[in-house]
Amino acid sequence: QSLLAEISQKFENPDAHYKLARMYHDQQQWIKAEYEYSIASGFSPANKWPEAGLVRMYENWGKPERAQVAMNKALQSCTTDESFVMLAKALEKEGLRKRAQECYEYAIQVAKNKGGIYKEIGYYYLEIGDKVRAEDAFRKSLELRPYQPDVSAELGRMGVKVVAPDIVHYNPTIPTDGSNTRLEEEIVNKK
Asked: Which pLDDT score is estimated for 68?
């Protein structure tokens, strides 16, 4: 009743719609849950929980084709690398590990920051106990983005020796005759 009161006061409240969807979902009131998940997604497209809930609801309802359509729509709604990660984590929380893996694999194909996606999929594989795939994902992440102490630490815990990348410092040659460096000359000449 309190959720319905919240919604009647402010219909655009995505959290209230999501909580109501969860309640209907738990009660197997599929049509009402579907409606509320859709409303919650529409009011807060950046929040991936309603989309993941909708996928799980269709699977619980015994509608695998609708679950796949909802999954495809959720993947297409991701516009940033972070949104892919948020969707995958929401799917994991819903107990949809295969769907989460599907999300990560799709993100690897389309993401701009593949290093960040490989890092997250590495953590996913660690969580499900697949250390071989986790190590592979973490290695790929470090290849793409070498300065990730958290990824290096995970590999270290897995017994992998991680060598820090070389750091190149720019050290301009200082003239010994008291004249300006080339950079200093460029600055002086611009004035």
From this structure: 97
